Amino acid sequence: MTKLFDRPWMRVAADLGLWVAVGAVMAVLGPFGSSERSLPERLVYWQLCMVGGGVIGILIDAQVRRAWPGFWPRLLAVSALMTPLVTGLVALVNHWLVGMRLTPGNIAEPWFQVFVVSFAAMCLRQLAWAEPPPPTVTTDAPRTDPEAAFRQRLSAKRREAALLAVEAEDHYLRVHTDAGDELITARFRDALAELADARGFRTHRSWWVAADAIADVKWLRGRGQATLRCGLKVPISRSNAAPLRAAGWF
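The structure corresponding to this sequence follows.
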């Protein structure tokens, strides 16, 4: 699903549609005593709670997903962290719509129901945005190293090291590995051709980065930067950002 909504505004619209739909379902079902209100009142109540709570959950999830990438740890962490804030939102909605007094007891009373609804809604969202597992391909053919041709250009000291990045410097290439960097004589376009089947990204007109070397990616005001495991900062141009976005880095 993420590839279908690779533009930020499309993803925001999809998230908004999800919360509006969940709010409509909750209004029709009328759980947690809300069935005592009329349907129009329930629609207003649940849209405010679900859309507002959904925004809170999305903001928290954006911070949590890097620390807890696993499905269940991430879901539990987000649900627990958003529950106090959404409980406060529910109290304000009750105060605005029915005049409920904002006492500590009244505010905290629905915390467990809020946690249950938050857990279910965020679980639905994570499932909707989950990347499908890559297809499993079985073959009896021996595996070949997609970096083998390029590695032949390196000295023996770094030929077996993990390849991190390739940087173009005039008529030379600076090859970054976990055993240090090395300057070789080669054209950048030849290096790209030899690394065409390797797992990596061309991030800039003068940079290629191995996928496994990336630790973090930041994107701000039309510019991006990848931080590698070795601490190296690599620029990301707008024209080369699409593959990284498709891979879920931002």
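Strands lie at 163-169, 172-177, 180-185, 200-204, 207-210, 214-220, 223-228, 233-236.
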